[in-house]
Amino acid sequence: MGEILCLNAGSSSLKFALFAIRDGEPIPAASGKIENIGLEPHLIAHDAKGKTIAEQRWTQSDNATHETLLGDLLDRIEASAGPDLIGVGHRIVHGGIDFSEPVRLDDRVLARLDALCPLAPLHQPHNLAAVRAVQAVRPSLPQVACFDTGFHHAIPAVATRLALPRALEDEGVRRYGFHGISYEYIARKLGEIDPVLSGGRVIAAHLGNGASLCAIKDGQSVDTTMGFTALDGLVMGTRCGTLDPGAVLYLFQQKRMSAEQVEHLLYSESGLLGVSGVSSDMRALLASDDPRADEAIDLFAWQIARQAGALASSLGGLDMLVFTAGIGENSPEVRARSCARLAWLGVEIDAEANDSNQSIISTPASRVTVRVVPTDEERMIAIHTADLLAAGKDAS
């Protein structure tokens, strides 16, 4: 069919993956990232076997913008893929009420997505900036939006409702949920590797710098820890997670902080960084001998277990617990601490299997199967983009 470029754009970085579509399935061709955008950008790309195939650095005097960097990236891809590059798929964090499935991007859709930027201020503006950058340098290249909120549109109304006046709900003030592209991939993968239990009661833990849990039943999202924004739920790298609204009122009324100061505090100075005073990076915390670092790790694990217990209630029990994303896939310590607090649910892990990052880390006697499943959001984006372009659908 051709090749599809998948983009995940942040404020100072751009992750990308190139897939060849063969018989409807994405085959990895290359991947990489551009880091330090705005200062001295650094591009590095690898082929499917991990071999470095391109690397370039720019200086501040080059004034390399998202647009020029994406133009250079597309030049490189087209030099190798030629006319086979058929489209670009984007991770868009927020789709709001309207967008439950991937859509073709055009100016009308972009305007509707711009209106959602206040709900995801750390992500949405940069996601959309990448769309516009591609649009500027390759106006005829089809682009597709895949939404982190999309997978959670199946959640029952009672799990989306906030106890605020209905007029606000009518304006879209409700729980949405995020990390949906990752959870959709996990649900799909579980159907392949464990078709019996995948149809049961599953909690997936997407644990990275941003972190959340999702309750999945019969392959559908039924509840999740993130809500109106990606600030809610678990403690994260620099985000506070679930917070008593009275604490926010205190910051305004007693500390006399501005809205901008509160936003910066909750999004960028809190979470693991705020509690530890050491780092937002779990690897640095695990390596630290500062007691505050250990307290931050323990809070992270405590919240995972606490909120997993709530999701188990939404599911009516638990058959499988899945760890994924950077911390979930690579930190035996975090998994062990979290699972130890879930023993009451029948979770029992095998220490040796856990320490060696095996795919199943629960003991044979455990009532709950515990798995480690690497996520692949880029593959999920490629699948959706290929399907939508093949069907010839337009934006809704």
Describe the structure.
The chain has 396 residues and is an alpha/beta fold. The protein has two domains: 2-147, Nucleotidyltransferase, domain 5 (2-Layer Sandwich); 195-372, ATPase, nucleotide binding domain (Nucleotidyltransferase, domain 5), CATH 3.30.420.40. Helices cover 39% and strands 21% of the residues. The chain has helices spanning 66-81, 107-114, 124-137, 157-160, 166-170, 180-193, 195-198, 245-253, 259-268, 271-276, 282-287, 291-315, 325-330, 332-340, 351-355, 377-391, and strands at residues 2-9, 14-22, 25-35, 42-47, 52-57, 85-92, 103-104, 143-147, 201-207, 211-217, 220-224, 320-324, 369-372. The strands form two sheets. Strands 5-4-3-2-1-6-8-7 form an eight-stranded mixed beta sheet. Strands 11-10-9-12-13 form a five-stranded mixed beta sheet, sandwiched between helices. The radius of gyration is 21 Å and the shape is globular. The model has no long low-confidence stretch (mean pLDDT 91).
